[in-house]
Design brief:
single chain, alpha+beta, Arc Repressor Mutant, subunit A, Tumour Suppressor Smad4, 2 domains, 5-stranded antiparallel sheet, 3 helices, elongated
Length: 260
């Protein structure tokens, strides 16, 4: 019987007398909704309510494998074979992983809403699973006949944001992110406000500010409520879309980010 969720299958494996004839499974499914949260396997990220949570790849593999077999009772041996590809791995490793997933999801083993334990059988994912048909937004950089912001002079600090395959330079001063046509980084998503947030670049500093957006701006997994100084490599979440802030330092210069 064909799985109605039509996930792209994990790499197949065969267990014959306890011998696994195929290697570790690779997560190849796309984003999906699980109950009230958004799961993004390729980013190892869950979007829960008003926050983004990063989880370990192993946890995401377990959750994605259970989602692929939604509603089915999956034995512990099968999960271990698919995720870790180690026939003699202690079941306690899987048990700890499931317990950690439950903590992240706010689930209760006694009264489960997401992952149900079937005694002496395995686990079953019972929360509704829905595939996300719409791919993540593609970055849209508005075309301008004349740039409104001058690029930083050679030899000074240079800031940019990386979104997928694109890298968008940030000019000195205000750089607005949102759906508005004059945004430096335009995101055509209903989850993003017209003027969602801004990054203000001044000399050797770059500061992130939320502009009263409906769905919030998240930095390092926490919602931004005030101006926060950015550091190189910071991940910023606008709705479902994530960009990485890049900061090029002159030789001999260091920069420390402020706590949220």
């Amino acid at each position: 019987m064909t799985n109605p969720l039509a996930f792209r299958r994990f790499r197949p494996y065969i267990v014959v007398q306890g011998i696994i004839t195929e290697g570790k499974a690779v997560v190849s499914i796309g984003d999906f909704r699980l109950g009230g949260c958004l799961v993004q396997p390729r980013l190892n990220r869950l979007v829960l309510g008003d926050g983004c949570v990063k989880i370990r790849p192993g946890l995401m593999d377990v959750l994605s494998f259970l989602a692929e077999h939604h509603g089915e009772v999956v034995s512990k041996d099968t999960i271990i074979a698919a995720v870790w590809a180690k026939p003699f791995l202690a079941e306690s490793v899987l048990s700890r992983s499931v317990a950690e997933l439950r903590r992240v999801l706010g689930d209760d083993a006694g009264r489960p809403r997401f992952i149900e334990t079937i005694t002496k059988r395995g686990y079953r994912l019972i929360a509704p699973v829905e595939l996300i048909g719409e791919p993540p937004s593609e970055p849209v950089v508005p075309e301008r006949s004349e740039p409104t912001q001058k690029p930083p002079p050679m030899g000074t600090h240079a800031c940019s944001v990386v979104w997928g395959e694109r890298e968008i330079p940030l000019g000195e001063g205000e750089n607005v992110i949102g759906r508005t046509n004059d945004a430096v980084l335009r995101i055509s998503s209903t989850r993003v406000s017209r003027r969602h947030a801004r990054i203000v670049v001044t000399g050797g500093r770059a500061v992130l500010e939320d502009l009263g957006s409906k769905n919030g701006t998240y930095l390092r997994g926490q919602r931004v409520h005030r101006s926060v100084e950015l550091a190189d490599g910071d991940e910023i979440c606008f709705g479902r879309d994530v960009v990485v802030f890049r900061f090029c330092y002159p030789a001999g210069t260091t920069m420390t980010a402020e706590p949220l």
